[in-house]
Design goal:
Layout: H1 7-66, E1 84-94, E2 97-107, H2 121-202
Length: 203
């Protein structure tokens, strides 16, 4: 077992137990917080994907009405007019974890021949940019989930360590030391009584 059967060790174990019991609720709270934020982020992703699908459906329907997109050569399709340059993000903090927060999606400036494309091309570009923004938001949330999940794994390991190992171990050590010290005390009392009897007899 490797635990010293002394009063000092008993105090050390009691102090450790207090510390574990004080720290455990903080860890459990963090665990719950992380689980809740991961769930929320997953729900947000599902909602964004749904909204994106609706936007794509309405856009393709709208382009089909004009019936002109199919007549563009592939290298000049409407999609070629929208190119993402970068996703700009801020940093946020959730349960002590630094996470990305979507700020804006920056597009490459693309010039196009106004004589070649129909008048509705401007509207189509705005719609395609909105659709691309959904992807950027989803990617940012996925990155956030990844970071929070890693932290959740570590926190869960710590909670388990405290709950299943450290706290029961400290309690058992305190119990074993207590029994030993009690036995020592009883033995001392018995020894004392025997010594007293011997003295009386001798007297």
């Amino acid at each position: 077992m490797g635990v010293k059967l002394t009063k000092n060790e008993q105090k050390k174990q009691k102090d450790a137990l207090k510390q574990f019991q004080r720290y455990l609720p903080t860890l459990q709270l963090k665990q719950q917080q992380l689980q809740a934020v991961i769930r929320e982020s997953e729900q947000e992703i599902a909602k964004l994907k749904e909204e994106q699908a609706k936007a794509k459906a309405s856009l393709s329907g709208w382009i089909a009405v004009y019936g002109e997109n199919a007549s563009f050569p592939p290298e000049r399709s409407i999609g070629t007019l929208v190119k993402v340059d970068r996703i700009e993000k801020d940093r946020g903090n959730i349960a002590g974890v630094e996470v990305p927060v979507f700020r804006e999606l920056v597009f490459k400036p693309i010039e196009y021949d106004l004589d070649f494309y129909p008048l509705w091309v401007d509207k189509a570009i705005v719609a395609l940019r909105d659709i691309a923004k959904f992807d950027a938001l989803v990617r940012t949330l996925e990155e956030r989930i990844e970071l929070l999940s890693a932290e959740l794994r570590t926190t869960t390991q710590r909670v388990n360590l405290f709950e299943k190992v450290k706290i029961p171990e400290a309690k058992e050590n305190i119990r074993v030391i207590g029994i030993y010290l009690q036995d020592q005390q009883t033995a001392a009392v018995v020894r004392g009584k025997i010594a007293k009897k011997k003295l009386v007899k001798a007297g």
